[in-house]
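Re: duplicated header lines in exported structure tokens

Our pipeline writes sequence and tokens for each protein into one text file. With two proteins the header for the second block appears twice in some exports. Here is an export where it did not happen, for reference. First protein block:
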Amino acid sequence: MDELLDSLAKSSDSAVGPDDIHYQMLKHLPSDALQSLHNTLNDIWLTGNFPPSWRQSHIVPIPKAGKDSSDP
């Protein structure tokens, strides 16, 4: 549990993924919800059964000012 709490404390507020879960939401979970999250993550670690939906992400390119955005 200490490792989970430490990771959440060190996380920065980045853009949300397809699940629409913000880090601030995770940081303010009650202790019973944090324990459920901890149990779920440990189960994934031990079994290797990683949810397919967690393999998705949104990538939004942000072009630099004054550069040709059609030239990657």
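Second protein block, exported in the same file:
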Amino acid sequence: MHEMSLCQGVIQILEEQGAAHHFSRVKMVRLEIGPLAAVEPGAMRFCFGAVARGTLAESAELDIITTEVTAWCFPCGDLVTIKDRPAVCPNCGGYQLQMTGGNELRIKELEVA
């Protein structure tokens, strides 16, 4: 379960930001997770609760936003939303797609005290 190490990384970032920006408590953490990031949101929630114990994020709410999978289509030059990989451009039927989103895991927003 790599979600545990991902949550440890999130907590480390929160601790560093708390020291840098002088906050002592995190009330809410909003994460953006792409469908292709190989992260199970339920496991992430479970691990976050376990890893946050004894930290400034101990009672923090974890809000997870699932992003869309996006790609740049070379034949038609459009940025398109797709369901999965491999994919076909929904506009022109082209197969030359470069992924531009959908595999991210990032801290989008914090509510702190």
